[in-house]
Design a protein that fits this description.
Layout (H helix, E strand, L loop, with lengths): L22 E2 L18 E2 L23 E2 L4 E8 L2 E9 L4 E7 L5 E5 L2 E6 L7 E6 L7 E2 L14 E7 L6 E3 L4 E3 L7 E10 L6 E8 L4 E8 L4 E8 L5 E7 L5 E5 L2 E8 L7 E6 L12 E4 L9 E7 L4 E4 L4 E5 L6 E9 L10 E4 L4 E7 L5 E9 L4 E7 L5 E5 L7 E2 L7 E5 L11 E5 L6 E10 L5 E5 L3 E5 L5 E8 L8 E4 L1
Parallel strand pairs: 2-15, 8-10, 20-22
Antiparallel strand pairs: 1-27, 3-17, 4-5, 4-39, 5-6, 6-7, 7-15, 8-9, 9-14, 10-11, 11-14, 12-13, 15-16, 16-17, 17-18, 18-19, 20-21, 20-24, 21-26, 22-23, 23-26, 24-25, 27-28, 28-29, 29-30, 30-31, 32-33, 33-38, 34-35, 35-38, 36-37
């Protein structure tokens, strides 16, 4: 769980790499990746053991040349475009469910089902859970309780799906009281909670370290069925602290500290002048851990900026809202930890990773490698025909395609069907170069359309924009510069398939 008040890094460590025989230069697309769950203490694997897999370029990259190895029970679910492949999740063939590693109720890291039903209560005391499952798509086989006491190092129990029924009423627990839920979900059904499913039902993993050079190692989940998965890197020069492969915003890639505190609006003095770093500790991803760096997340800096982490703050902490400075926490903190901000931590002091686009097909992989040429991380797909990074997305034709990673969004349209895009640019500002690909919402819910920038046009008399996923409605005409756009057919972009190996 990521607190909404935090600004998390733009690029996380991606857990998959496919290597191909040729490479070309290009900028790495931005890809977000979540925090890994807690697990057993890492054990270092012999550098020569099980690392002879080849990435056709000759670099070590795990036992099969990839950042994952399927096991006897866990088969990798892979996003594929032509010959390029990226790890998506696991499929447990014994249970016939997709799963990802997370902390289980027995304190071990296990591959737990990703398709779990939503749950509430059917009584005003919030004691009897009711499962809410979708009526379409893959069947839900497991339910997690709607509310439980958070215990650091322990996940929640999973239950089997029981018989269908219609509850007389539904309730939710808001943290302090049990309140009615009067909403009417569509395309769902209600089920009783079945028996607790033993944690041992799910594949367990230990953690091992696979050296990838003189400084960095890949931290892997080693499943007890023989499966393996890279999930982060370890930096030997920083006491084996976890790090994630991160684009600094200029195309340079570093392995930046993963356990971070964040400077936001918190200070150690009543005048709110000495900033402190916030480290949330109520989620399994971070509880019980000490940050190894502080990131500037105030929004005042435009580049990725880190500091060394100082001592934990045990004296009162203050918060500013811009107008006042007030006490927010004392020395007895439960959910959050605050840390002093130390000396600047230059990006140049961190491990840097060369990046290239590798592969022979139209769609290649943007890959970061260590100084020895070993696998660091796959940062996503690269469309060599369009000369831009791309990612798996639902296109306007209803098919999953590799649509461009562009920072330019079309938000208003010249027609009431929201099909003729208009790019808006601040008055007098330079537009993006000719041929720049743009992104917009399409008529099909949750899908995207693409355009290229056209000529500058006069401000229209009327414009329209999407309200939600299905409604195109009139919008205000702003005092900005308007540029026409040219639609790019969805068929211009490569198809993506997702399936177990």
């Amino acid at each position: 769980m990521v607190p909404s008040r935090l600004v998390w890094p733009l690029l996380g460590f991606a857990t998959s790499v496919v290597a191909c025989s040729s490479s070309s230069s290009g900028a790495a697309p931005s890809v977000d990746a979540g925090q890994p769950p807690d697990g057993a203490a890492p054990a270092t694997k012999d550098a020569d053991a099980d690392s002879g897999g080849n990435v056709e370029s000759g670099a070590d990259a795990g036992s099969n040349g990839l950042a994952w190895t399927s096991g006897t029970r866990l088969r990798a679910v892979v996003d594929a475009v032509e010959t390029a492949r990226i790890f998506s999740s696991w499929h447990d063939v014994a249970l016939d469910v997709d799963c990802d590693y997370a902390l289980s109720s027995d304190g071990k890291t296990r591959c737990l089902p990703v398709n779990q039903g939503f749950s509430e209560y059917d009584d005003s005391n919030c004691t009897n859970p009711v499962g809410i499952v979708p009526t379409g798509g893959a069947p839900v086989k497991y339910l997690s309780p709607p509310h439980g006491v958070f215990v650091c190092g322990k996940g929640t129990e999973l239950h089997a799906v029981g018989a269908s029924y219609v509850p007389a009423a539904r309730y939710t627990f808001d943290g302090t009281s049990c309140v009615p839920d009067t909403s009417t979900p569509t395309n769902t059904s209600y089920v009783h909670f079945g028996a607790v499913v033993p944690a041992t039902t799910f594949v367990a993993a230990t953690q091992v370290s696979d050296p990838r050079g003189t400084r960095l190692s890949a931290h892997q989940y080693f499943g007890d069925d023989g499966s393996r998965q890279d999930f982060e890197m370890l930096d030997k020069s920083r006491a084996n602290a976890s790090c994630e492969v991160t684009d600094d915003g200029t195309g340079k890639v570093y392995c930046t500290p993963k356990e971070r505190a964040y400077t936001e609006v918190f200070f150690s003095d009543a005048a709110c002048t000495t900033a402190v770093g916030l480290h949330p500790e109520y989620a399994q991803q971070v509880c019980g851990r000490t940050p190894t760096a502080v990131q500037d997340s105030t929004g005042k800096v435009k580049v990725l900026t880190f500091f060394e982490v100082g001592a934990r703050i045990t004296t009162p902490v203050y918060e500013t809202n811009g107008a006042s400075c007030q006490l927010v926490a004392g020395p007895t903190l439960v959910d959050d930890g605050f840390y002093a901000v130390g000396a600047p931590l230059p990006l140049a002091s961190l491990a840097s990773l060369p990046v290239s686009n590798e592969g022979n097909g139209r769609v290649q992989l943007t890959v970061a490698r260590t100084e020895s040429g070993a696998l660091g991380a796959s940062l996503g797909f690269f469309d060599s025909q369009k000369n831009i990074g791309c990612r798996k997305s639902l296109a306007a034709d209803g098919k999953v395609r590799c649509l461009p990673n562009t920072r330019f969004d079309v938000r208003v349209f010249a027609d009431a069907q929201c099909s003729q895009g208009l790019l808006t640019i601040a008055t007098g500002a330079a537009p993006p170069p000719a041929g720049t690909l743009l992104r917009a919402q399409a008529a099909l819910p949750f899908s995207s359309a693409n355009f290229v920038i056209g000529a500058k046009v006069a401000a229209p008399a009327s414009v329209w924009s999407w309200n939600g996923n299905t409604t195109c409605q009139a919008a205000a005409v702003e005092l900005v510069d308007y540029y026409a756009t040219i639609p790019v057919p969805p068929t211009d972009f490569a198809l993506v398939t997702t399936a177990p190996e």
